TrEMBL record:
<dbReference type="InterPro" id="IPR002919">
    <property type="entry name" value="TIL_dom"/>
</dbReference>
<keyword id="KW-0732">Signal</keyword>
<feature type="domain" description="TIL">
    <location>
        <begin position="31"/>
        <end position="83"/>
    </location>
</feature>
<dbReference type="Pfam" id="PF01826">
    <property type="entry name" value="TIL"/>
</dbReference>
<protein>
    <recommendedName>
        <fullName>TIL domain-containing protein</fullName>
    </recommendedName>
</protein>
<dbReference type="InterPro" id="IPR036084">
    <property type="entry name" value="Ser_inhib-like_sf"/>
</dbReference>
<comment type="similarity">
    <text>Belongs to the serine protease inhibitor-like (TIL domain-containing) family.</text>
</comment>
<feature type="signal peptide">
    <location>
        <begin position="1"/>
        <end position="21"/>
    </location>
</feature>
Amino acid sequence: MSKSIVLCLLVLCISASLISADSASSRRCPKRNQRWNNCGTACPLKCSQLKPVPCTKQCVIGCECIPGTVLRKDNECVSPKDCKKI
């Protein structure tokens, strides 16, 4: 009886984690030039800081700029050449 309960709980936990991971990876970001990342950087490239800086290894869940774009101060992802255009 005890083994059956443990097995059922294990199956439930695995199922829940798979459903959670699937729904998180299929999220859409509302702004142009962004994508969802389950483990993005805590130090994204910005118009004010175009070169990578030393950063922590923590994962940040959420929308990030696609490669080739940087975060402008109005929270739009733009080409570095468009940083001054607001």
